[in-house]
Amino acid sequence: MKIIKSVFTFMTIFFLISCLGFSKKEEVRKATFIQTKETKVAYFASGCFWCVEAIFESVKGVKEAVSGYAGGHTLNPTYKLIGTGNTGHSETVAVYYNPTKVSFETLVTVYFGSHDPTTVNGQHPDYGSQYRSIAFYSNDKEKNIIENTISKLNKDIYKGKIATEVIQHTKFYEAEEYHQDFERRNPNQGYVKAVSVPRLNKFKKKFPELLKKNGH
Q: What integer pLDDT is reported at residue 29 of this predicted model?
C-alpha cells in the first residue's frame, strides 16, 4: 500500500512540474504573428517550448517567439500526439527577429547558452524525443554558423559531448493557442514557477547585455 501511495505521489509531483502535465481539451490554432519585410525567422528546440519562447522573447531584436512543432514526420501534429514521442517532432520555437538589431549568430549563442546541449532526448525535468535539442538551419550560411559554434563549444567547454541535432528546416507547425506566451499568461502555474522562471532568470544573469530594456 505504501509503495502504491509513493508511486501516486511521485506521478502527481511529476505532472505538476512537467511541461507534459498541462493540457486542454481544445486544439485551437490561430496565427499569432505575421512575418514582415523587416523580419527573418530562426527555429530552435531545446526542451519545453514554454521556457524557450520566454527566453528568446527577452532578447533585444526579437519581435516574437512562437511555440510549435518541427523536425518530425507526422503531418499536423498536436500537443497530445507530441506527448507520445512517436511523431518525430520536437517542441520548437519560431523566432521572428530583426537582423539589423540581432544576428542569427547571436541567436545561436542564446540557444546554446540557455540549455544543456549534451542532454540526449530532453531537458530536465522533461525527457523524450519531443524534448530533444535541435538547431534548424534554412541555408548553408546558417548551417555553417551552427556547426562552427558546436565545434568551438565541443572543444572549449563540452569535450565533444554535444548531442544537438543540426537539421534543415522544412516545416513548422504552430502549437495550439493556449501554449503561446504561456509563461507570461500563467505566472502561478506550477511548472512555470519551478522550471520556466528559474531557467529564464539564469539566462538573464548570464547574458545581461543581450536583454531588451523595459521590455523593448
A: 58
User: How far is 58 from 201, CA to CA, in rounded Å?
Assistant: 10
Q: What pLDDT score was predicted for residue 22?
A: 60
Which domain CATH number covers 43? 3.30.1060.10
Is the residue at 170 inside a domain? yes
Contacts of 57 (CB under 8 A, 6+ apart): 64, 65, 181
Grid cell 522573447 in the structure block, residue? 57
Q: Is the pTM of this model over 0.70?
A: yes
Question: How far apart, in whole angstroms, are the C-alpha atoms of residue 7 and residue 12?
Answer: 9
* Residue 43 belongs to a domain: yes
Instruction: Pull the grid cell for residue 209.
Output: 547585455
Are 111 and 45 in contact by the 8 Å Cβ rule? The answer is no
165-168 vs 172-174, strand pairing mode: unpaired
89, amino acid identity: H
Q: What gap in Å lies between CA 18 and CA 91, rounded to an integer? A: 14
Task: Give 21's contacts (C-beta < 8 A, 6+ positions apart).
Answer: 14, 15, 190, 191
CB 112 within 8 A of CB 149: yes
> What is the count of structural domains for the chain?
1
pLDDT digits (tens, 9 = 90+) for 36-55: 888 999 999 999 999 999 99
Please give the positions annotated as active site. Answer: 48
pLDDT one-digit tens code per residue, 44-96? 999 999 999 999 999 999 999 999 999 999 999 999 999 999 999 999 999 99
Q: Give the residue numbers spanning the domain of 35.
A: 2-210
